[in-house]
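Two records follow; treat each independently.
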Amino acid sequence: MSDPAHAPHAAEPGLLSRLVAWLKRIPTGWFASILTGIFLAVAAAFGGLAPVAEAAVAPVAAGEARVGDQLSVSVERAVLFDSFPEAGAYAEDGERVLALLVTVENRWTQPLLSSQGAVEQALRLDGVSEDVDDAEPASIARLDDATFGPWLQPGVPAELVVSWVVPESSVRAGEPIDVVIREATLEVGQRLTSDERWTNSRPAATVELTVTAGGDSGGTE
């Protein structure tokens, strides 16, 4: 006869059934999060996830359109001014205004505000100075009527002046500069929201331009 003192410990009555009931109450999304956490922890232990290849950044010629899902952008010219208040860009002592002439078409189905998440995020300078590279433009204006931060209607091309205030010594007329065209991804709201917005702008193309000299602060050449 076996000794009761050495008998295996029996499971607490009802423990298994309570555990099963608790698991059934957990939302399935929690399981996905738990599995994701386990996967990342294991991946980190073995050197992390494999790097994702960066999308190629293609060179385009001046005046050539880069067509994306949100915008079609062609960068025509780069002009250097002492100041350019008519376009909304004001240079102080030791500064100048570098203005790009661009043609932009809204390829989406809804109007886009150029100064909020559209052209503002689509263009960057590269190789000018640390303070200016990858910075948002100081101003965006229509070429025909000087409207600041204009709306872009679907399917209607617009000529814009996109300007940065740059250090005076950072760029001179006759020198080349690179302009980076970035493309955004449409994000669709889920669960509590159903809005759509363009986010996560990434470099898609580069344009090399030769800077030309503008006129005085009045912007005439």
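The next record belongs to a different protein.
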Amino acid sequence: MKYHMEVHKFRNALSYLVEFESYKIIKLGGFAWAGLNSFPNGSCFLSSSLLGMYLQQQGAENVKLISANVDSDESPYIKSHAWLEVDDKYVDITGSQFSNITNARITVQNKHSSEWIFAYAQVAKKHGTYREQEPDFDGHLDLYNLILSRINSI
């Protein structure tokens, strides 16, 4: 994937902020800290959306934010999740929250592979909800700028 290094920079910057400079996120107010307090757990939508914006600003085209929900026995370990599709690849920076499935901090998979994100997407399409949309700042432009400042200091 062309933007592999950018994905790593973004996740590293976000992880650093959550772990070592959480006070900066708290100072932003709003829901930023609530959405990241347990990163990567429960942070997939916000993190993926902001990563999508970052990748678009780095020149990536055809970036989609995907969110899915499954409330059935077909997916006993993942009830909801969000990730990106970039150039026919699934990109996930929060999948490690599902430690019974993966411990990878960053997952990049072929969109049509038989790996876990593809399998979950298929279950969501059949037994739950599956949504593709454009990533956006979702009211978190200040958080995005904080992440950018951290990336630029790496």
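Discussion point: Strands lie at 63-70, 80-86, 89-92, 107-110, 128-133. How would you locate this feature using only the token line?
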